[in-house]
Design brief:
Strand 4 (about 85), helix 4 (about 100-110) and strand 5 (about 120-125) form a beta-alpha-beta unit. The protein has 16 helices and 13 strands. The chain has helices spanning about 20-30, 40-50, 60-70, 100-110, 130-140, 170-180, 190-200, 210-240, 245-255, 275-285, 290-315, 340-350, 365-370, 380-385, 395-400, 405; strands at about 10-15, 35-40, 75, 85, 120-125, 160, 180-185, 205-210, 320-325, 355-360, 375, 390, 410-415. It is α/β, with parallel strands linked by helices. The strands form two sheets. It has an eight-stranded mixed β-sheet with strand order 3-2-1-4-5-6-7-8, sandwiched between helices. Strands 11-10-9-12-13 form a five-stranded parallel β-sheet, with helices on both faces. It binds ligand SAJ. The site of ligand SAJ has 20 residues, from helix 8.
Length: about 425
């Protein structure tokens, strides 16, 4: 499949400059496209136009800085016409665990008036099944002058496809280029047009399909991981009850050639794995039984950890508890759906003791904790000197290097098994 013929004369507008949109925008700019990044936050727009980034992601700042300096990437609050529109906005869920596609709707409302014949719209955001077709219907209502794509029709004035992002936070730049991509078009031509775009920077294979299959494939990938992590978390609960070391157990079971159990932890966080399975459950509640049970096991894990800490604190007169890590996983600053945050907030709310937080990826505590009197952000040294209870929540690389002898006199609750 040929790459898009002339990147320098193709303008790409990327909506949403977050963990997905910003790397995509920067990489497209580095391949010579004329890229406009659109975000609703003036702070994010200013940061990027200054050649800097607002998130922690290895090497990304370098690529953004180069793209901005070369004039190929600029961020803006308002948009104009483009040839390609990429939507990379959040798709959270509501309180009753229903998908919320309102950010996509808002982006489409801004894009629709700017569309012209031949334009391509790509939805990168993880989305419930049917969203790409929904985008087509929203546009058709606003732009009756444009012939919209349909599965059973070869030609259309515009093309719409879903090309779900699959990058792992912490390895985004490598995975953006190396991973295979699923490209789901509303029609076959839509998929081909989107694949041409991605061909410019993706070294992995392109797999063309329809939009609904692409939507479900993305959700299923994350549900698969959630179910497997739930299995590990359930094992850790069983092992606690039976007084067996779960880490030893898993490493022994994994010696079997067809067994590969993942690692238990304090719960599952992030904006993807803890969220996406609910989109499947909402769409097919009667069938998604294992997927739902897995969500419940993983969501229950933070409270199990809180109970362990409370039991340890009860043995002390004025407990000082050092909580190592707040982010949802190692070596990033992302706090979204973080089980560590949930645990620390719960301990603070219940006044379990004085809480010393160690989080090398943050310069200050998030607002929900900054106000609490009993909570302080400290460095590793201070935490080790003052705490009676050491609660390991995130396996950041700095924590792995801690001298095991310093841990000996402490009550250690290691939810990730890094000090075993
Ligand atoms: N976790 C465990 N035990 C494990 C592995 C992970 O407790 O053995 C926890 C992590 O600590 C974290 C959560 O699970 O709290 C999720 O972390 P992750 O590294 O598995 O995944 P994410 O959420 O950072 O990224 C996922 C990836 N999906 C898959 O691996 C199937 C990524 O490829 C997706 O692009 C991303 O979701 C997304 O945006 O959907």
């Amino acid at each position: 499949m040929p790459a898009m013929s002339n990147p320098s004369s193709t303008r790409v507008a990327v909506y949403g400059l977050g963990y997905v949109g910003l790397p995509v925008a920067a990489v497209l700019a580095s391949r010579g496209f004329d890229v406009v990044g659109v975000d609703i936050s003036p702070r994010i727009v200013d940061t990027i136009n200054g050649g800097k980034i607002h998130i922690v992601e290895p090497d990304l700042e370098m690529v953004v800085h180069a793209a901005v300096s070369s004039g190929k990437l600029r961020a803006t609050l308002e948009t104009g016409p483009a040839d390609v529109f990429i939507i990379a906005v959040p798709t959270p869920f509501t309180e009753d665990k229903q998908p919320d596609v309102s950010y996509i709707r808002k982006a489409v409302d801004v894009i629709a008036p700017q569309l012209k014949k031949g334009d391509l719209i790509v939805l990168e955001s993880t989305s419930p099944v049917g969203t790409t077709e929904q985008i087509r219907d929203w546009i058709a209502r606003q732009r009756p002058d444009l012939d919209p794509p349909h599965a059973d029709k070869d030609e259309s004035d515009i093309h719409i496809a879903h090309c779900p992002e699959r990058v792992l936070p912490g390895s985004v730049l490598r995975e953006l280029v190396d991973n295979d991509r699923i490209v789901g078009g509303i029609s076959a031509h839509c998929a081909e047009h989107a694949a041409e775009l991605y061909q410019n920077f993706v070294r992995g294979e392109m797999h063309l399909t329809n939009a609904r299959t692409a939507e479900l494939a993305k959700l299923v990938e994350n549900a698969f991981r959630d179910v497997n992590i739930a299995f590990a978390n359930e094992l850790s609960n069983i092992c606690d009850e039976l007084d067996i070391n779960v880490w030893e157990l898993i490493s022994l079971a994994n010696k079997h050639p067809r067994v590969n159990i993942l690692s238990p932890g304090p719960g599952v966080g992030g904006h993807c794995i803890a969220v996406d399975p609910w989109f499947i459950i909402a769409a097919s509640p009667a069938n998604a039984k294992v997927i739902k049970a897995a969500r419940e096991v993983n969501d229950g894990k933070p409270d199990t950890v809180v109970e362990k800490v409370k039991a340890a604190a009860r043995k002390l007169r004025a407990p000082v508890i050092a909580c190592f890590g707040l982010s949802y996983k190692r070596d990033i600053d992302d706090l979204r759906e973080s089980p560590a945050m949930h645990i620390v907030e719960s301990l603070a709310r219940q006044n379990v003791g004085q809480l010393l937080i160690v989080e090398p990826n943050l310069k200050s505590l998030p607002e929900s904790l900054a106000q609490a009197e009993s909570v302080r952000l400290v460095d590793i040294k201070e935490a080790m000197a003052e705490a009676d209870v050491i609660l390991l929540l995130v396996d950041h690389r700095q924590f792995k290097r801690i001298d095991r002898d310093l841990l000996k006199p402490k009550i250690v609750i290691d939810t990730r098994g890094i000090w075993r």
